[in-house]
Structures are given as C-alpha cells and as structure tokens.
Amino acid sequence: MGEMNQNQITVAQHVAIIMDGNGRWAQQKLMPRTYGHKKGVEATRKAIGFYAKAGVRHLTLFAFSSENWNRPQVEVSTLMSLFITSLKKNTAELHANGIRIRFIGDRSAFSKSLVRQIEQSEALTAANRVMTLNVAANYGGQWDILQAVKKLAARVEQQEITSTEITAEHLAAELTLADSPDPDLFIRTGGEKRISNFLLWQIAYAELFFTDVLWPDFSAEVMQQSLDTFASRQRRFGKTAEQLELKS
Ligand code: IPE
Ligand code: IPE
Ligand code: MG
Questions:
Q1: Dist CA 229 CA 208 (whole Å)
Q2: How far is residue 11's CA from residue 227's CA, in Å, rounded to a whole number?
C-alpha cells in the first residue's frame, strides 16, 4: 500500500471553522473593524473553494454567534448587510460548483430581507451534493442542545417515547446538524484557544487546529496545513494506540 496517498484516505469529512480575527486584522491597519469583516468575506470564499476541492464533504462556518448581538450596533448592522450582499453575490458561484448552502441558528431575529435571501440561496442549492456548506448565524451550541431537548421533551409529552428510552442518538437526531457526520476537524483562526459556544455536542471527538493567523489572512497554505495536521493525528476514540495498530 506504499503508493496510496495518505491524504486521500484521511481527508477530513467535516471541517468546522471559527473564522476569528477580522476586527484585529483591520485595527492593525488602523482601519475600522467593519473593514476586516469585508475582507473576511473574501477569505471565506477562498476557504469554501479550497476545502471543496480537497474533498471535504461538509464545511460548517461560524459567522455570527448568539453573543455577537452585544457588539456595537454599527458592527452588527454591517455584518447583517454583509450576509445579504455576499449571498446575493456568491450564491450563483456556489451553485455552479455543486455546493449546497444551509444556515443553522435562530433566524427569527433576522430582518425579513435577510431571511428571504437565506431561503432563496438554500432553495436554489438544495439538490447540490459536492459539499454542504453550513453557515452558523445567530447560532450557539447551548441553544442547539436546548432546542433539541425541547423537541425530545415534546415527544415524551406526546407519549411517542418514554424518558428512559432516550439515547444519545435520539438527542443527536434533533440537533441542527443531525444529517451530517460530526466534524472531524475543528479549526479556529485568530489565536484564541476557546470554543466560544460553537458546536458543543458535535465536536466531542474532533481534532482541534488552532492558528494565530487572522481570518482575512487565512491562506491556502494554512488551509493545507490544517488538513496535513489532521492527517498526521492518530484518532483513538478511547482505545489504545496498540489496539489501533493491530488493525492496519
Ligand atoms: C470574527 O472576527 C467575525 C465575527 C465574530 C463576526 P472578530 O470580529 O471576532 O475579530 P476579532 O476577534 O475582534 O479580531
Ligand atoms: C466567535 O468569535 C464567533 C464567530 C467567529 C462568529 P468571537 O470573537 O465572538 O469569540 P470570543 O468573543 O472571542 O470568544
Ligand atoms: Mg473575535
């Protein structure tokens, strides 16, 4: 098996990214934080193309957390209008590349025009199968678990299931990413080493990759480094290294 490309058999199936560092990137250039978000959209476009081409089947991007509403109002409104304009601008390209886009998170707080644009982009690309792009917007990992628990509780009330019958699979099936495999590679740019209420349940066994590179500077070189790092990790899922080596 010497000639087998290690990357082909160990490419991550689901990559989840906290796209962090736009504000600092702009501030370093003595520019307003919103300038960093505009540049961040371009980095996002490149990352989507890169990971799709690399064979990643699911990409989940943290674009706006449920806590980000607490930012200055101009920054929040700039981010909201950037969602609309970048969807308008880039949905056709996503579609042409066979990418399905979906939004996860509570969209009830968004403007009607943003919700309409999200629905249009989702509908146009719904049948695409090259890669699924999940955009987490007004998303929080705790919110996701909570809404899943509420759905399960309703099923118990309806006597469809008893509380003792509930398994981890039942809960996972009610989460927003129920139909995707769990992320196997979790990336955070911008130097912080925390999860910031992104996917919580789903990253139980994800490999973590942190880089100091700020999101607008996230280059193909660093993207490739994330995949190479993933390929070099031994995923043990609780077993011993010896148990895993016996199998190969
Ligand atoms: C990430 O960049 C984008 C969003 C949270 C919307 P930041 O805006 O958090 O950038 P920093 O962390 O302040 O540099
Ligand atoms: C996480 O980044 C959210 C997004 C990238 C959308 P933050 O910049 O909001 O996280 P904290 O506040 O540093 O934890
Ligand atoms: Mg940040």
A1: 10
A2: 7
Helix, strand, coil abundance in the chain, percent, nearest 5 = 50, 15, 35
Ligand 2 centroid to residue 201 C-alpha, Å:
18
Is 68 catalytic? The answer is yes
pLDDT tens for 200-209 read 999 999 999 9
Q: Whose CA is nearest to atom 9 of ligand 2?
A: 68
Instruction: Give the model confidence (pLDDT) of 168-199 as tens digits.
Output: 999 999 999 999 999 999 999 999 999 999 99
Residue type, 35: Y
H helix or E strand, kind and range, residue 59: strand 58-65
pLDDT digits (tens, 9 = 90+) for 133-145: 999 999 999 999 9
Q: Which residue has the tokens 């039942």?
A: 170
Q: Does residue 137's CB lie within 6 angstroms of at least one atom of ligand 2?
A: no
Q: In angstroms, rounded to a whole number, what is the distance separating the alpha carbons of residues 205 and 186? A: 10
Please give the domain boundaries of the chain with CATH numbers for all domains. 12-237 (3.40.1180.10)
The closest-lying atom of ligand 2 relative to the alpha carbon of residue 190 is 8
Q: Cα(217)–Cα(62) distance, rounded to whole angstroms?
A: 17
Interior angle at CA 130, CA 41 and CA 199, nearest 5: 60
Ligand nearest to the CA of 70: 2
